[in-house]
Specification:
alpha+beta; OB fold (Dihydrolipoamide Acetyltransferase, E2P); Immunoglobulin-like; 4-stranded antiparallel β-sheet; 5 helices; 26% helix
Length: 272
């Protein structure tokens, strides 16, 4: 065999060995590489699972800036801008967290689609995510991962309902006990309410909401006695529709119905 053939043979062996080493490293360090790839896609490094740092800024009721990261507080959803109690929820975080050293506990899903770190925020031994629910500034929100705080947060919400605080305040409208959830079809993405009273109910300005940001506000509308109304997640079927094609989470969701003053008419938790 000539010298050129020997060089080619040796070069091929080096390539094969190099590929073997790379595959071995991939196998041994998959979780590390997966984390690195996630970091690359998000454009920022993931925090340690248990980090301490100062809260630099409060964006709203469920978003703060700490550890030089944007932190989306897990397990909760607070009102958006122009919604009832938005300013109050933000002010609670300003008074409670701004300038304070907190412990940030990163969740199983570490980063959301917007590159925000998903975490629980603790001030000393206080779970601030839970306190936002307890004080009526937030409702429970677990769109994908049901972790150890799932049951706790819904129990806390039940306590909030008893205290009638802010988002947990019951409606005093005469139709509060008239409107029932007749059906929620996760597959068809349809929710139906029925008026069980012997008189019509004016639902103008009432809001239907899921656990997240999606909501439907009734236009001028009166629901006749013993009649039903369906709200679709589609613009093609009826004038009563959400703006999103998908609203209800198949793994479980909560239906909130609020009157024109944003007080609760009913809340119904639908499990998977």
């Amino acid at each position: 065999m000539d010298l050129q053939s020997e060089i080619k043979k040796s070069y091929k062996k080096e390539i094969y060995f190099g590929v073997f080493v790379v595959l071995l490293i991939l196998g041994l360090n998959y979780s590390f590489l997966d984390k690195t790839f996630t970091n690359f896609l998000s454009g920022e490094a993931i925090l340690d699972s248990n980090s301490k740092c100062l809260v630099e800024k409060v964006t709203d009721g469920d978003t703060i800036h700490a550890c030089n990261k944007t932190i989306r507080m897990l397990g909760i959803n607070t009102p958006e801008k122009k919604e009832t109690y938005y300013l109050e929820a933000k002010e609670f975080n300003n008074k409670t967290l701004l300038g304070k050293e907190v412990r940030v506990v990163v969740g199983a899903d570490k980063i959301d689609l917007y590159g925000r770190t998903l975490a629980y925020v603790f001030l000393e031994n206080r779970n601030i995510n839970e306190e936002l629910i307890l004080n009526g500034f937030a409702t429970p929100y677990f769109p994908s991962t049901k972790d150890k705080y799932y049951d706790l947060f819904f129990k806390t919400f039940a306590t909030c309902l008893e205290s009638q605080s802010r988002l947990c305040k019951s409606s005093t409208d005469k139709c509060t006990n008239c409107i029932e959830l007749e059906n929620l079809d996760m597959k068809a993405q349809e929710v139906t309410f029925r008026n069980i009273c012997d008189f019509s109910c004016d639902l103008t300005g009432w809001t239907v909401k899921d656990e997240g940001r999606k909501n439907f506000v009734f236009p001028e509308f009166s629901l006749a006695s013993q009649k039903s109304v369906t709200i679709y997640a589609s613009k093609e079927k009826d004038k009563f529709h959400f703006s999103q094609a998908t609203v209800w989470t198949a793994t479980g969701d909560t239906v909130y119905l609020r009157d024109e003053n944003y007080n609760l008419v009913l809340v119904n938790r639908i499990l998977e």
